[in-house]
Design a protein that fits this description.
single chain, alpha+beta, Butyryl-Coa Dehydrogenase, subunit A, domain 1, Butyryl-CoA Dehydrogenase, subunit A, domain 2, Butyryl-CoA Dehydrogenase, subunit A, domain 3, 3 domains, four-stranded antiparallel sheet, three-stranded mixed sheet, 9 strands, globular, binds flavin-adenine dinucleotide
Length: about 400
């Protein structure tokens, strides 16, 4: 009885939040996407509204000032946002990956100090892992942190770091021991707030995912207090990053689902309005085949994303499920954007239509948060591990 009551209360709460989000997207975001995206302008006013709505704390526990929503609800939020403008979801995703690292692995003092500020959006974070020479092979990073008294001095550089210009802090992966074997035993994760020696060297010009800041960074004798070492113990950084990857993959899968759905929705409308040879193109079988495949891909991706999110919320191991969801949903986004471009014919190529943006945004999804090549390898390894003979 209690469970049923809780479930219906959770469902009602989820519906209220999603309805509020839909209104926000319709009124505050949709009318501005084209202009902001075209000029690669950071959506400051939209971010301010997101703060007011509590979105920056949506999966942070309520005892630390967040909304404490489930991953399943969070995934639906990201899906809806991405269907309107994927860049906005990135402002939230990287921030919440950082917050989750502190929530899971931080000391109580770190949680009390940082989570309420992250939940309110006063602090807006990101994750600083990738370097110019390594993304997939993170154990090859070269940024170092050397302990000096009650501080660490950080030197090195990072590449492709989202939220690093307009945000104000990062979960920064470094080497605290460059000789450790295996290499991950020398890696640590720090809470790095902007300060002297934290230098944004360049905002990167990107194919898509515009509006949001993705930058190259240098750390030149940048100092952080020892109390910023997440968990308070050296050598756990890679583990802390990897334990957040399931959530990260559900995030990106949800983005993929939003983009796949948006491309499908646009195509369904256009195919009924555009006429060739005396009838709407949706009555030509070649277009019907495309729409049938796009819709099936989207729905299959949705079921995988929901299954991974529910497993994550239950605390079950879900690396394979999150990998499948990420792989399927982001490939669905990529393929649906390409197919929608074909359905739109020449107009798909025009910057006046959303299809052109979806086409440019979607390739990032197959690269970020573990490339889709790596996802298939992870899925296969898990498959063998779970079915040993
Ligand atoms: C717009 C954008 C935003 C980003 N934001 C962030 C961010 O906020 N923070 C951050 O830390 N990073 C960020 N990244 C970096 C991103 O996570 C990396 O680009 C990604 O992890 C891939 O790394 P790489 O580019 O170095 O490719 P590489 O690791 O060099 O891989 C190149 C190719 O080799 C394949 N490959 C590599 N190793 C293997 C293997 N063992 N087996 C089979 N195939 C393999 C890959 O699948 C890929 O096809 C961002 C990237 C972009 C483009």
């Amino acid at each position: 009885m209690t469970t049923q009551t809780n479930t219906s209360h959770d469902e009602e709460q989820e519906q209220l939040i999603l309805d509020m989000l839909d209104r926000f997207l319709e009124v505050e975001v949709k009318p501005h996407v084209h202009e902001l995206e075209y000029h690669d302008t950071y959506p400051t006013e939209i971010v301010e509204k997101m703060k007011e709505m509590g979105l920056f704390g949506c999966i942070i526990d309520s005892e630390y000032g967040g909304l404490g929503l489930s991953t399943n609800t969070y995934s639906k939020i990201i899906e809806r946002i991405s269907a309107v403008w994927m860049s906005i979801s990135g402002i939230l995703n990287s921030h919440l990956i950082m917050a989750t690292a502190i929530q899971r692995a931080g000391t109580e003092e770190q949680k009390q100090l940082y989570l309420p500020r992250l939940a309110s959006g006063e602090l807006r974070g990101g994750v600083g892992l990738t370097e110019a020479d390594c993304g997939t092979d993170l154990q090859a990073i070269r940024t170092t942190a050397v302990k000096k008294g009650d501080k660490y001095v950080i030197n090195g550089s990072k590449m492709w770091i989202t939220n690093s210009m307009y945000g104000n802090c990062l979960a920064l992966l470094v080497k605290t021991d460059t000789t450790a074997q295996p290499r991950h035993k020398g890696m640590s994760l720090f809470i790095a707030e902007k300060g002297k020696g934290y230098v944004v060297s360049k905002k990167l010009d990107k194919l898509g995912y515009r509006g949001i800041d993705t930058c190259a960074l240098n750390f030149d004798d940048y100092e952080v207090p020892s109390s910023c070492l997440i968990g308070g113990v050296e050598g756990r950084g890679l583990q802390q990053v990897l334990s957040g990857l399931e959530l990260g993959r559900i995030n990106v899968a949800s983005r993929g689902l939003g983009v796949a759905q948006a491309a499908l929705d646009e195509a369904v409308v256009y195919a009924q309005t555009r006429k060739t040879f005396g009838k709407p193109i949706c009555e030509h079988q070649a277009i019907q085949l495309k729409l049938g495949e796009m819709a099936t891909r989207t729905q299959a991706a949705r079921l995988l994303v929901r299954a991974a999110a529910v497993a994550y919320d239950r605390g079950e191991r879900c690396d394979m499920e999150a990998g499948m969801a990420k792989y399927a949903a982001t490939e669905a986004a990529f393929e649906n954007a390409h197919e929608a471009m074909r359905i739109f014919g020449g107009y798909g190529y025009s910057k006046e239509y959303n299809i052109e943006r979806l086409y440019r945004d979607s390739p990032l999804l197959v690269i970020g948060e573990g490339t889709n090549e790596m996802q298939r390898i992870i899925i296969a390894k898990q498959l063998i591990e779970r079915n040993r003979i």
